[in-house]
Structure formats: C-alpha cells, structure tokens
Amino acid sequence: MVLASVSPLELEALLARGWRRFGRVYFRPACSPCGECVTLRVLSDEFVPSKSQRRAAKNAARFRREVGEARVDEERLALYASWHRDRERVREWPPSEHTAESYARDFAAPHSCLREVIFRDDANGGKLVGVGLWDETPNALSAIFFFYDPAIENSSLGVANVVMGIESARLAGKPHVYLGYRVSNCASLRYKSAYKPHEALVGRPALNEVPLWETSRG
User: Fold this and answer.
1) Which range has the worst mean pLDDT, 112-121, 146-155, 204-213?
2) Dist. CA 179–CA 141, nearest whole Å
3) Rounded CA gap, 187 and 167, in Å?
4) What is the pLDDT averaged over residues 37-45?
5) Cα(16)–Cα(218) distance, integer angstroms
6) Which residues, including other chains, have CB under 8 Å from residue 1's CB and lie 6 or more apart?
7) What's the whole-model pTM score?
8) Which of 209, 217, 195 is nearest to 40 (CA)?
9) Which candidate among 4, 72, 149, 163 keeps its CA 20 to 30 Å from the CA of 118?
10) Using alpha carbons only, what angle is made at residue 216 by residues 39 and 146, rounded to the nearest 5 degrees?
C-alpha cells in the first residue's frame, strides 16, 4: 500500500497486524503457503539483555548517541554506500542505488512518527559511525533500518542500537518494540529472536481483526 498520510495511532494498528513501512510504502508478506516471515515485538518492561547484548551496549557507550529528525546529506549517503558495499561483499547482496533521492524516498520521507538515531565517534572528530531509523507511536517503537561503518563491525553497534531502543521504550512507558520480520533461514533476519521476551504475531490478521500474539520467554 502507498499511503500519503498515516497518523501515529493508525501506524500502530498496522504494526500490530504485521505491516512495516519504508517511506510511504506499507507492506507485509502476501505469499500464502509460506510462514517464514514472522513479525516480532519485544516486551520492553520485561526485556533482559543477554551477556553479549550487554557487552554490545557497553562497547557503544564510547559513541555519542543523538535522536532527531531524519536527514539526507553527503555524510549519511557516504556511510550508507560504504555499509551496502560491505553487505554486497560479505552476504552477496545485489548492488543498490545510493542517491540522495532514493535515500530520501526510503529513509527520510516526512512522517510524524519518524525518528533518526545517530552515533558519532568523538574520539575520531565526531565521525558518523551509525544511523538508525525508528518509528515512534503512542505505545511502541518500531525499528525500520540501521546501517553503520564497516570498520567498526566488531563493536556490534547494530545490537546496541536495538538494546538502547528497547530501554528508551521502557523509560517512555511504551510496552512494545517492533523488530520487523524474523526469518530463521536468513542470516540478516534470524537475529531478532535473540531479544527476549518477545511476542510473535499469529497469521496475517485483517485491519478489522484483533491480532493474536504468542509470547516466547525461553
């Protein structure tokens, strides 16, 4: 679906039924015989980070974290291009365009819920090392996308971004953090089940149906 105007409460209703968004495009899986794409959301009040997740957050403490409006500039475009080239090399992703127009369309299209979280390395002149895009609704945060400097891959900044997002939701009294789709056979998406406790959406409920979520704590 391409929607020009979606309120925070409307977006929250879509998230609760398995929808995601990039820019003005809202989507969810439509392949009826397959159930590999499972929508997950973390219970922020109950979340207990694992040892590796705590270590990632501690390692990221050396970076300055800022929350603001999503922007498009040469600094962000260069970081995204560098990150994507690394994904192409390591995981054989197909090449992707890296223009200001495509970045603005996918990651910075105006939306009342959109938030940008950036990480800067002040020990390296304030260099931009990570960018996370989130949606904020009355009762939830939703992780949209994250990319980072491949030179600091061992710092697990992507893990820290999620852990810090969950803590932000908890402090704001938001019970849910949506992580998108877990696909167990996909290296880029299976990691989401490591954030516990979490809930998994059952099926693909219609907008007029009450969604059913199953809790996993183990």
Assistant:
1) 146-155
2) 9
3) 25
4) 96
5) 22
6) 25, 26, 27
7) 0.94
8) 195
9) 4
10) 45
Q: How confident is the model at residue 136, as a pLDDT? A: 98
Distance CA 197, CA 188 (A): 20
pLDDT in tens, 158-188: 999 999 999 999 999 999 999 999 998 887 7
Written as one letter, the residue type at 2 is V
- Domains, the chain, in order of start with CATH, read 8-216 (3.40.630.30)
In the DSSP assignment, the letter for residue 195 is S
**Gap between the Cα atoms of 163 and 5, Å rounded:** 30
Token digits of residue 118:
């950036």
CB-based contact 142:15 (threshold 8 Å): yes
Strands 140-148 and 176-182, sheet pairing? parallel
Residues 181 and 189: beta-carbon distance below 8 Å: yes
Rounded Cα–Cα distance for residues 186 and 36 (Å): 10
Q: How far apart are CA 31 and CA 36, in angstroms?
A: 10
Encode 52-79: b = buried (16+ Cβ within 10 Å), e = exposed. Answer: ebeebbebbeebebeeeebebeeebeeb
Q: List b or e across 133-149, with b for residues whose CB sees 16 or more CB atoms inside 10 angstroms.
A: bbbbbebbbbbbebbbb
